[in-house]
């Protein structure tokens, strides 16, 4: 299985989702390839995002925003977008499932607003992995 988490800058929401997904995958022992990117990548990860993720025990200080490409999701089963649309980078014959997570964009806000977005993303990723785990048991 392959999952992509995509937002505009790949400097906040999608990186948080990716880091939480990697933790869920590893803790649950599920075979899931995870990719991430942005439609207009920022120069660096937001300092506030690094800080709030460290509060949750996850270090993303070494990550660099990158552009998502059609090749990245060509074989993805799911693409989760936050603030952008899969139509911006969808390959012509892609037949995976697109999910849109409506999340606040916290850039330039307080640490509390970043924490709120982080916590919502953590909960959504956990629920998403519950769903993946249940569907893999039925298959």
Automatic annotation (TrEMBL):
Question: Does the keyword Hydrolase feature in the UniProt annotation?
Answer: no
Protein name listed in UniProt = Low molecular weight phosphatase family protein
Chain ranges of the Phosphotyrosine protein phosphatase I domain: 1-131
- KW Isomerase (keyword) present: no
- Taking the record's annotation, the residue ranges forming a coiled coil are none
List UniProt keywords, sorted A-Z: Arsenical resistance
Q: Which GO terms describe its biological process?
A: response to arsenic-containing substance
Gene3D superfamilies associated with the record: 3.40.50.2300
**Pfam families from the xrefs?**
LMWPc (PF01451)
Q: Which domain of life is it from?
A: Archaea
* Organism the protein comes from: Natrinema versiforme
């Amino acid at each position: 299985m392959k999952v992509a988490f995509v937002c505009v800058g790949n400097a906040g929401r999608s990186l948080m989702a990716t880091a939480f997904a990697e933790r869920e995958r590893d803790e649950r022992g599920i075979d899931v390839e995870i990719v991430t990117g942005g439609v207009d990548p920022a120069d660096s990860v937001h300092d506030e995002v690094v800080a709030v993720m460290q509060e949750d025990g996850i270090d993303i200080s070494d990550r660099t925003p990158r552009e998502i490409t059609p090749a990245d999701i060509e074989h993805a089963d799911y693409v989760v977008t936050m603030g952008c649309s899969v139509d911006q980078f969808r390959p012509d014959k892609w037949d995976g499932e697109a999910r849109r997570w409506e999340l606040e964009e916290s850039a330039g806000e307080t640490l509390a607003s970043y924490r709120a977005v982080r916590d919502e993303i953590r909960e959504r990723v956990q629920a998403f992995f519950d769903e993946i785990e249940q569907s893999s048991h039925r298959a």
